[in-house]
Amino acid sequence: MLKETEIKKSNRLDFSNGWSYAPAPESTGHINIREKYGHFINGKFVEPTEGEYFDTVNPATEEKLAEVANGSHADVDAAVKAARQAYNKYWSKMSGRDRGRYIYRIARMIQEKARELAVIESMDGGKPIRESRDVDVPLAAGHFFYYAGWADKLNYAFPGREPRSLGVAGQIIPWNFPLLMAAWKIAPALATGNTIVIKPAETTPLTSMKLAEIIQEADLPHGVVNFVNGAGKTGAAIVDHPDVNKIAFTGSTGVGKIIQKAIAGSGKKLTLELGGKAANIIFEDATIDQAVEGIINGIFFNQGHVCCAGSRLFVQENIADEVRDKLIDRMSTLIVGDPLDKNTDVGAINSKEQLETINRYLEYGVQDGAEIYQTKCALPDKGYWCCPTLVGNVSQSHKLVQEEIFGPVLTIQTFRTPAEALEKANNTPYGLSGGVWTDKGSKIFGMTNGIRAGVLWANTFNKFDPTSPFGGYKESGLGREGGLHGLLPYLEL
Ligand code: NAP
Ligand code: MG
């Protein structure tokens, strides 16, 4: 008779010996990308004042997709002037009902152009089309729909108070959810009556440019939303501009700290959505298969380019072997490759630099004596790739356990008691999110009350909704986005 483990192995689908799905690529015939993008200022696409451009590439093929302007101080200044004028002339005077109509229009246009937006998002950023199609784009439309509904109800949102807009909001977003992060920023700012200067990330500007086209087509008053392309310096110029009333930043904790220092004493309002190092905790009484599926989704979703990724796994000691075996089994079935293929589970790493960062962390792991298990996936010749990776034999002090890697790398550790799990989960400078897997409601309450993080999931992971507030504790940030809470950073009460 076969031993239990042998039976399991013999039943496993082995993708390494040729068993695979037929390719199912999404077509690109319907998309429209210009060769060159300047900025979108005062309702028009304009050339940069200093005429400097950089390339945005497809990280899965290393092919250039378009040239994009690198914004200077003068470009940022023109955008802020346009936003200020639009604020004084139109947007601050318009009724909430009319603002809401514009925002609903943007939401519907995102839905109409969903297919093109999803394909461009996957080409520019490397994420699987299944995610951009089923997560990023519908959630982006959802945020506009949700905040459109608040535009004429601000007095109900804050009863007995007098909500007033701030003025010009400067917004800076990262590359991991480009369109969705733009929606998180733009929708609440518009609903509350502010005008906007926003900078997309250097490696993923294209869906922002498509959103600028939508805003142009939706006929928003000129200057209400302005996009300035560029890198970190352009972002800093927005932060430092004296006529900006509020900064909303999503990105790394390092840059968040620089921004906090830069605006200290300026009177600008600030929200920061920064990095994370979430703990996913599995108890012995959890439904193991369901938990394994959730752990996989928690870290390999979007190549681990997720601020709230469940990058640290803590398993109760007596089920550790079973969980590890099941995880490795499931990891070996993940399909890594062409982001435009509908079968793909794990797409391309967003940039060469990010791949180098991930590999550097794996090196640290080797130096620290960690056991690194990587699936054997056949990778395309070009592009930036990292196979799903599980790291064992690590302790709390290891870099891989302490620092945000922002890639498909999961560390696994064990615990004996809930108190030990809590102590380990909280032993990090971050506090963005976390997950608990157990059959017992009381354990869910106990653990979620004890974990110092802004977003906690129980028996699920990485679920988002426009009505739920999102944000961090400790070095994961300040303020909340989403839900009713997401209105507050854009208002004076
Ligand atoms: P990043 O390097 O901090 O960049 C974020 C944005 O800031 C980019 O647009 C960047 O421009 C710009 N920037 C860089 N230096 C700046 C400066 N001195 N002043 C103003 N702007 C500046 O972060 P990233 O690598 O793009 O994104 C990954 C990070 O974002 C991770 O740490 C992740 O956890 C975090 N994140 C957090 C959330 C959340 O909600 N908490 C959501 C998503 C991502 P360039 O693109 O040209 O560098
Ligand atoms: Mg790109």
Describe the secondary-structure layout.
Elements lengths: L3 H8 L24 E2 L1 E3 L2 E3 L6 E5 L6 E6 L3 H19 L4 H17 L1 H12 L3 H22 L3 H4 L6 E2 L2 E5 L5 H14 L3 E5 L6 H12 L7 E3 L4 H9 L5 E5 L2 H11 L5 E5 L5 E4 L5 H13 L11 E5 L3 H12 L20 H16 L3 E4 L14 E4 L6 H4 L6 E7 L2 H9 L3 E2 L1 E5 L3 H10 L4 E4 L14 E2 L2 E2 L12 E2 L1
The structure holds NADP nicotinamide-adenine-dinucleotide phosphate and magnesium ion.
Helix share, percent: 25-40%
Summed over residues and divided by their number, the pLDDT gives a mean of: 95
Let me know the CATH homologous superfamily of the largest domain. Answer: Aldehyde Dehydrogenase, Chain A, domain 1
User: Count the helices. How many?
Assistant: 16
Described by strand count, sense and barrel closure, the largest sheet is: 7 strands, mixed
What's the number of domains? Answer: 2
Uncertain runs: 1-14
CATH architecture of the largest domain: 3-Layer(aba) Sandwich
In total, the number of strands is 22
Major sheet strand order: 14-15-16-13-12-18-19
Which structural class matches the secondary elements?
alpha/beta
The end-to-end distance, rounded to whole angstroms, is: 73 Å
User: What hetero molecules are bound to the protein chains?
Assistant: NADP nicotinamide-adenine-dinucleotide phosphate, magnesium ion
Give the amount of beta strand, in percent: 15-25%
As a whole number of angstroms, the C-alpha radius of gyration is 23 Å
Say what the CATH topology of the largest domain is: Aldehyde Dehydrogenase, Chain A, domain 1
Shape: globular
